[in-house]
Design a protein that fits this description.
It is a single chain. With 328 residues, the chain is α/β, with parallel strands linked by helices. The protein has 2 domains: 131 residues, P-loop containing nucleotide triphosphate hydrolases (Rossmann fold, 3-Layer(aba) Sandwich); 189 residues, Zinc Finger, Delta Prime, domain 3, CATH 1.20.272.10. It is 63% helix and 8% strand. The protein has 15 helices and 5 strands. It has a 5-stranded parallel β-sheet, sandwiched between helices. Helix 6 crosses helix 8 and helix 8 crosses helix 9. The protein is globular. It starts with a strand and ends with a helix. The model has no long low-confidence stretch (mean pLDDT 87).
């Protein structure tokens, strides 16, 4: 069996990958049949020969095998991709008929539809199981939050209005939402999550983690900005989460700056049009005074470039945070 997981919502696709791995390990507790090959690790190391050896070798301790192949399209060389594609085409019927072998390809892909391996994995009229993880919005995002709360805590103690406020505060980033769900559930301890809980906890997280960092950047205080970042990291906060929050707030600043500078909207109208929480709009209005729209656009472009580098394994999250601030 071949499974292909891909899409820009890497958090949800990683959850799916983890679920497949955990299910496999229930029957293979020694993990003797598990192989993971990440083309984002050790760039320059040839992996296609090793991968084919893994696929061709039988597992002596257990007949079941799970082979996870990550980032071969994003990071593998053209030759490596061609070799694996040729192997898959030659062995496709055998692999699809082998009930003891599961091959999972995992990618963070946005614009790879012309890639030959991508086309093979997403072709219609094949036995390949594919799932694209696009960014969720609206009712689908709300349903995901409720389902995630149910999975993590056995119940979803949150009203519709509170749920909407949580999403307004956090945006569409499922990684950020997942972190905030955990904070809220631990704070409320089985009680229903109220709007005031979201306002206090999530607002505090936004202010503590991001606003002061951006203020320091805007004022040219790089040392202070780096110190703030590493203070959060030393407390065990996820660097990917901090980076996601920076992206989230820069996006907010661009939206607010656009509505303020190009449309001359007052605060109340910006809140209505942007659908952001009033606190976020007010704080953003204060922050955009330190930037021009062009400067904000360049900052966001820089974050976007670093985001791609992170997703393709070219740079780690902590280094990406440092590079963003140091190269300002």
């Amino acid at each position: 069996m071949i499974i292909f997981l891909y899409g820009e919502d890497a958090f949800r696709s990683n959850l799916k990958l983890r679920a497949l791995k955990d299910k496999f390990l229930l029957s293979d507790t020694s993990a003797s049949g598990l192989s993971v090959l990440d083309y984002g690790e050790k760039p320059g190391e040839t992996k296609d020969i090793k991968l084919i050896d893994i696929l061709e070798s039988a597992n002596l301790l257990s007949p079941k095998r799970l082979v996870i192949i990550k980032r071969i399209i994003a990071q593998g060389s053209k030759e490596e991709q061609e070799n694996i594609l040729a192997y898959l085409k030659k062995k496709q019927k055998k692999i699809e008929g082998d009930r003891d072998l599961v091959i999972v390809f995992w990618e963070e892909i946005l614009n790879q539809k012309k890639n030959a391996l991508f086309q093979f994995l997403t072709a219609e009229k094949t036995e390949i199981k594919q799932q694209e993880f696009t960014k969720l919005s609206g009712a689908k995002l709300e349903q995901w939050v409720l389902k995630r709360m149910q999975e993590l805590f056995g119940r979803a103690n949150i009203s519709q209005k509170t749920l909407e406020k949580l999403i307004i505060f956090c945006g569409q980033d499922t990684r950020i939402l997942n972190n905030e769900i955990g904070k809220l559930a631990n704070f409320c301890d089985q009680k229903t999550i109220q709007e005031k809980d979201v306002e206090e906890l999530v607002q505090a997280a936004l202010a503590g983690n991001i606003f002061s960092i951006i203020d320091a950047v805007a004022e040219g205080r790089k040392k202070d900005a780096l110190l703030l970042v590493h203070q959060h990291l030393s407390k065990g906060e996820d660097p990917f989460y901090l980076f996601s929050m920076l992206v989230y707030q820069l996006r907010n600043l661009l939206k607010v700056a656009d509505l303020k500078e190009n449309f001359s909207y007052p605060e109340r109208e910006i809140i209505r049009v942007s659908q952001m929480h009033p606190f976020i709009v007010r704080k953003s209005l204060n922050q955009i005074r330190n930037f021009t729209f062009v400067q904000l656009a360049k900052l966001y472009q820089k974050l976007s470039q670093l985001d791609v580098m992170m997703k393709t394994g070219k740079v780690g999250a902590e280094l990406a945070l440092d590079k963003f601030i140091a190269e300002m």
